Amino acid sequence: MDDVVIRVSGVSKKFSRNLKSLMKYGFYDITRNIIGVDVKSENLRSDEFWSVDNVSFELRKGEILGLIGRNGSGKSTMLKMLNGIYLPDKGKMEIKGKVGALIDVGAGFHNLLTGRENIYVNGSILGMKKEEIDKKFDEIVKFAEIEDFLDSPTRNYSSGMYVRLGFAIAVHSSPEILLVDELLAVGDLGFQAKCFNKIGELKKNGTSIILVTHNMYKLASFVEKAILFEKGRIIFYGEVSKAIEQYKTLFKDAKYGDQEIEKAITSTDDFCVSNVEFLPSRDLNPGDTFIIKLDYESKVDLNNIEIEIRIDKGNRIYFQATNRSYNIIINIKKGKGCIEIIIPNIPINDFEATFSITIWKQNREIILFWWKNIKVNFRPVNLCLSDNFLNLSFKSS
Prior knowledge:
By secondary structure, this protein is of the alpha/beta class. It contains 8 helices and 19 strands. The longest helix has 16 residues, at 19-34.
């Protein structure tokens, strides 16, 4: 049985570089359409360029696909074509299923209407019936965190409030396909965590998702495959870690610097890490035992959590593993406690590492804790680097 829900075949989309040529070609194309003459949209004219150029890919049921690339590389244009905002000039797109999308801030909202009224308007646009909106109304409002502003006109909303409300409506419309642009970056850290937890829940229920983001850590956490765009074309399509490696090579020029903004999540509604301690320190000699201690408070019992450790060396993921890799089950009881991540006898040499720690709820659906960019320096001796060298152990109390 074919489980492909989106099939894009040789799709291209062109735009004009300036308003004058846009108006001229728009009038010309409309006139030719009226009189029944072929527009010949497959050819570029003066001052036109391909924003998306001969792109092909597939999205399967329950899959999350990442779209990455520099600004202006064609990611958002591709998403807007999938949502029907733009029509392709060449190629073919097949979409099977109900689509929910969060692409533009305030898209589908009327600024003079209140948040309450816009829930019904936007929900209807996404194919929800009034009875369905009535049933999910309180959930949408709670998720969007706009209770105090529900009856205010949305023209008074901040960009973050727009995004919260738009995302809440989209994910509660029971989409079979969800399209999400980088707009989630507008929200605060707590709301971002809640959004990605909801994405994990939707995936579990069979929703297919296309995610555009510049945050490589989020991408590596949620996505199995990624597409790297450059100048409208696909330059890589496959395993997410390899896509990220190639993406980062695009920024080797010093004028760009590190354009990936990494953030941390230290608390959620159920779980909070109050302190992170390193023993003996962040400067290690080869052969030392390195211990990371996380002091936490949990409001509930958490069974079979997953702790992921990742070590980056430059643009390369040097090591990545979880307690499950070592057949270790970790349960956390309600109350205060400590988790120790123990890395004994580190056999590496002259090395600055970036550690990432993520704690997931059971089945990797909800992020409980996430910390990136923990710098650790390993002092030089005459030892050689080797892959997959770590023998991790974990303790919880």
